[in-house]
TrEMBL record:
The keyword Signal applies. Residues 1-20 form the signal peptide. Keywords: Signal. This is Lipoprotein. It comes from Pseudomonas cedrina subsp. cedrina.
Length: 135
């Protein structure tokens, strides 16, 4: 009985240890506040946004009707993961995440290309955009 209990404790410890060493990835280069906008001449409706990517893996993004960001459309929040040039945004209450490839052009500029998006998104085309860090 003691041996079975000891083996069970060893396996439990190993399992818990494995869980604690596997961590979600949040590319530290993306943590911060970013501003983006869609081109007014693009195939998708114009909008601008401010995106707060927090180090704890949460985000808050506010969308605006205008470039001056005075006409709010809506605010969303959720969780994000980013590593190896792939970023996934999972908005609270939305079944499917938005998935992008990304490339840092410099410390304050990142370019995204949509890989997969929620089917209810307003723009389903080959969608790409650039965000600039707000300091």
């Amino acid at each position: 009985m003691k041996r079975t209990l000891s083996l069970s404790l060893i396996f439990l410890t190993a399992a818990l240890s494995a869980c604690s060493t596997s961590k979600t990835t949040h590319d530290p280069a993306l943590v911060g506040t970013w501003k983006g906008l869609r081109a007014e001449t693009g195939k998708c409706q114009f909008l601008s946004w401010t995106n707060h990517l927090k180090p704890d893996g949460r985000f808050v993004i506010t969308f605006y009707r205008n470039a001056q960001q005075t006409q709010v459309i809506q605010t969303e929040q959720g969780s994000w993961l980013a590593a190896d040039g792939r970023n996934e945004l999972r908005t609270d209450g939305v079944r499917m995440p938005d998935v992008y490839t990304y490339k840092l052009l410099d410390a304050d500029t990142v370019h995204y290309v949509s890989v997969a998006s929620d089917p209810t998104s307003d723009c389903q085309g080959d969608y790409e955009f650039t965000e600039r860090r707000i300091r």
